Amino acid sequence: GTLGGWQLAVNAHVSPERRRLAAKLIAHLTSPEANLVLAQHYARNPPRPAVYEDPRLREADPFIADLKRMVERARPRPVSPYYNLISDVLQSEFSAAVAGLRTPEESLKRAQRQVDHLTGVRE
């Protein structure tokens, strides 16, 4: 998704030399130049705002300015104990609609009934 990411860490239970090398690798992988390469060749959203302004990236991806605005406005999903269950319902029903197994209207009605049941909503 637009909002999310990767985490990089150094294992505290390795030799000092390996920790040093891991930190050096992390510094490289999070550098502006690496952000640019990942965005240009692997469609990774740059975590560094300045990378969106790089003319090389703007030339390679004319939609990068739109993506920057999306990233700036992105908000985390609401926290819910039902989130995974609701996601499964929506994925299943949307897939059924896309595959032509149900009409979009049928899939939405089914999804609504299932989500209401999961969350205890009564009509």
From TrEMBL:
<protein>
    <submittedName>
        <fullName>ABC transporter substrate-binding protein</fullName>
    </submittedName>
</protein>
